Amino acid sequence: MGFVNGLLWLLGCQLVGEVISHALGLPIPGSVIGMVLLFGVLLVRKPEVDSGTLGAADGLLRHLQLLFIPAGVGVMVSFGELRADWLPIGGGLVLSWCIGLAVVAGLTTWVLRRQDPAR
């Protein structure tokens, strides 16, 4: 029963995020808002190692590759439209990857310096 409760927590946070996103008309996907809400819940309510939430998350992560199949099918179905705009799409992907890499590198450096000021 713990797995089901954990899955309900995960899906509940996603649902609340979707409701907030649509109700406020935010340009942020509801799943991202739900993930931030789940992070807050996990900070406040520290789960035990054998909790249902962690078990459900671990089960989903173990089969994460299956969750990418619908997205891959969607890309293949829309391949004709994507082919016409491959340059801006590719440029956006490369640029966003570079920005993400720079942000993660900066945050990692900042965290390591806070942990060990001698660095």
Automatic annotation (TrEMBL):
Lineage, broadest ranks: Bacteria, Bacillati, Actinomycetota, Actinomycetes, Micrococcales
InterPro entries in UniProt: LrgA/CidA (IPR005538)
Pfam families in the record: LrgA
Protein source organism: Janibacter limosus
Name listed for the protein in its UniProt record: CidA/LrgA family protein
Membrane topology type: Multi-pass membrane protein
One GO term describing the cellular component: plasma membrane
Transmembrane segments: 20-44, 64-80, 86-112
Compartment(s) where it occurs, according to its Swiss-Prot or TrEMBL record: Cell membrane
Major place of residence: membrane
Keyword Kinase annotated: no
Keywords from the named record: Cell membrane, Membrane, Transmembrane, Transmembrane helix
